[in-house]
Structure formats: C-alpha cells, structure tokens
Design goal:
It contains 3 helices and no strands. By secondary structure, the protein is mainly α.
C-alpha cells in the first residue's frame, strides 16, 4: 500500500463515530490478524517472523 492509502485509512478510522481500539490496514495485515485468532500462537508467531524477514 502507498503511504497515502494508509493515511487515508487512518483518517477514515479516526473520524468514525466509534473507532476500534486497534485496526489492521491492508489485506496482508487483515489476513494475518484473522489467522492469529484461529491458529496456535507459536505457528502465528512463526508466520509473523517470516513475513518481516529482511
């Protein structure tokens, strides 16, 4: 995502009537957030570390 798209999403969330305490922006992050809820913690931690390897 472009920085502008992320900023637009943040502004949209901030201006909503009842903004969530946390939010995932972008398909990759939304998918990972969902997977964290259904996968074992060690497995989701492994996926997370693999997503952000340099």
């Amino acid at each position: 995502m472009t920085p502008e798209a992320v900023a637009d999403e943040i502004i949209s969330i901030a201006h909503s009537k009842n903004p969530p305490a946390e939010s995932a922006i972008g398909l990759k992050n939304k998918t990972f957030k969902f997977a964290q809820k259904i996968l074992p913690e060690k497995f989701s931690d492994s996926i997370n570390s693999n997503m952000y390897e340099s």
